Protein: PaaI family thioesterase
Amino acid sequence: MQLSKQEFIAQANAITKGTLMEALEIEFTDYGDDFVTAKMPVTPKVHQPDGVLHGGATVALAESVGSFASHVFSNLDEVFVRGIEISANHIKSVRDGYVYAKATFIHRGRTTQLLEVKVTDDDDNLISLCKLTTISLPKKK
Structure:
């Protein structure tokens, strides 16, 4: 039975309970043939001491959505996926509202995957540009 997009997103959000993603209130919002998106509220919980979004929270959002994209597009009966490298360029500050992350594939190999994750604000301004490398390793049988 094929899940609807809404059912799939609901299941994706349900598995984040009790994780960092729940603590940061990261919520998956959409997916397509080659992307996954999520959002995170910008509140004092994710601020630096001077009241702007913490780069570490931004990177946690980027890794969450990018790793999930690698999971969605992998055969999880045969492999497990892990992030092995992430880099981020923080371009603009944000104090409130939401940030949105969209992960798209640059390379979708059998073993390694390279994703670009653009993090934007409510006005679609680029906040951070991240690059994530994941690896798919065979499950032991």
